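Aim 2 progress update. The chain analyzed this quarter is reproduced below.
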Amino acid sequence: MKATQRLHDAGQSIWLDNITRAMLASGTLERYVRELSVTGLTSNPTIFDHAIKNSHDYDAAIREQTAAGKAGEELFFELALADLRQAADLFRPVHEATNRVDGWVSLELSPTLAYDTAGSVAAAKQLHARASRPNLFIKIPGTREGIPAIEEAIFAGVPINVTLLFSREHYLAAAQAYVRGIERRVAAGLNAHVASVASLFVSRWDVAVAGKVPPALHDQLGIAMAKRTYKAYRDLLASDRWLRLLNAGARSQRLLWASTGTKDPKAPDVLYVTSLAAPHSINTMPEKTLLALADHGEIGPMLPHDGGDAEEVLDRFTRAGIDLDALADQLQREGAAAFVKSWEDLLACIAERSATLRKAG
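Predicted structure tokens:
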């Protein structure tokens, strides 16, 4: 039995952190679903930028949409939604079989809205309606301005993937926004079942401290921060506040491990998968990591509910001079800025391709 199947059977969802039109057309994604236990996927501006820039698969659609007068963000979302609707339809049987727990795809809001609460809520409602698929998450970053947007979107019934979370504190802010949104729905007599996931970015921690800590601490920070967050997640799921919402028909916001591709060439290529196996969670993996897991991954013990040795390991980083809270906020700011840069690159790529196709007739 492949490690992907063992991980799925242990209760962790395997999602692919990638989408391309070629992957859909060739049947590759369908094969990953059938053979590698993939039950969802995530996307972001960088993924679409690479997909459009490195192929001609989108040329016909760009030519058609450009002729219809569409450009910029509007044109991009037409391209992205076409791919994601197809992927959502592929995952729809999983979505229905799991009573809407699994089988999701994700679409990012314009990263320029990361610090715009009202704009994020309006865009989330509009994009979700435009997608017209029940198993499509809208991604909103868990920035200070994003937190109230998450609450409002959940209250409005829009499924949300909270992105750019780096610490336990970031996670708890997002989780509490989700809970408040559900509580408001219950108080208003609305259905309490609005899905959400909270995406904790892992590998960027280890990149950030590379060369700044003793060799004995290399590639340990991201996993320790994830374990600390997992304890907070399990504590919330067991809380009286959440159990009351379960009685009202709510489903828990699942914790998702993001940024799980290994960046250190000296570290195992499935480090952030095998170390973070846990039931009722998700790992969204780059394609390379997914294939490595299927080829030679080994699934060991599940994460301990209490976080295991997380605090002991994190204390070593603190003694090595790492300000964990400050670094978490820095990583979130840098992540938001990187998404904006990718967004600008993406729109420039689409504009350039549109112009080239117009000239070519």
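The first helix runs from residue 3 to 9. The chain has a mean pLDDT of 96. These observations will guide the mutagenesis experiments scheduled for the next reporting period.
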